[in-house]
Amino acid sequence: MLVLALDSSATASVALARIDSDTPGASAEILASYESEDTRSHAEVMAPYAAQVLADTGLDGAAVDAVLTGTGPGPFTGLRAGIMTARTLGFAWDKPVYGLMSLTAIIERAFADGAFRDSLTAANSGMNRAAVETLVASDARRREIYCALFAVTENGYSLAAGPSVGPAHQTHAPASDPSDPAAPALGYGAGLYAEVLTASGWNVLKDYAHLHPTAADLVKAAARCGVKNLSRDTQALYLRESDAKVPAAMLARTASAQPPHGQQNTGEQQKTRGQQPAPASPAREP
Fold first, then answer.
1. How far apart are alpha carbons 74 and 71 in whole angstroms?
2. In a designed cystine with 28, which of 58, 151, 223, 259 is the match (CB 3.0 to 4.6 A)?
3. Minimal CA–CA distance to 189: which of 144, 152, 154, 220?
4. Cβ within 8 Å of residue 192, ≥6 positions away
5. Among residues 13, 194, 211, 257, which one has the least CA distance to residue 109?
6. Which residue, 243, 236, 241, is CA-closest to 9?
7. Model pLDDT for residues 41-89, shown as the tens digit of each residue
């Protein structure tokens, strides 16, 4: 099946992949993909990237079987661009649209690369743990990170807690001993606050401390999970209230413009005054 994946939780990226099955454990072949170099050009590139991956493969929307979008967490404007592009394409092509948390793309990249071999070895060497606790973090700006905890085993990974947003020093500390290498942290957010997270007991993996979520890794995560198990919920994970607020002066003007309860507004009063009562029907003579 062909899946068009989009993610704009950090950088903007689009990928077209062929997945060999919709069941768990499937693999995905990336046919074409594009990713922006910055984190502030989402609206300008999402639709062109989608058009380009189709053009590169000589396909059109009719050939796509499903659309996948990263649901964040991420900032309002950027995250919304990717999700709305995915929904629009799904509607236009009459295809199902699935949502998957964007941080899953980062854990997928590391797991596929074998980044947890040492941690899994330690976990299986008498440390009495069934899974490796792993922190995945992205930059939330304002000196904060978006993060989620995953439980990693030899067979895959699963979400253990989160996502959440907050200062790095308030991030959940690993349950394992601080000297235990089996407490990895990865993602661009982990790299930004490596010293803080290290002091909390996390082992920041340098090779994965620069990673942003990408559509290519997201669709590979979807294949591992099984497309048929994905959620149709594409609600954005903003995790913060919007910074855009209605000014107090405007709220006050709006409130003062409202007529008192039970009183008609001026337009309704004029309309009522301008109406004449309907003439009574003449009485019929017996």
1. 8
2. 223
3. 144
4. 139, 145, 168
5. 211
6. 236
7. 788 999 999 999 999 999 999 999 999 999 999 999 899 999 999 999 9
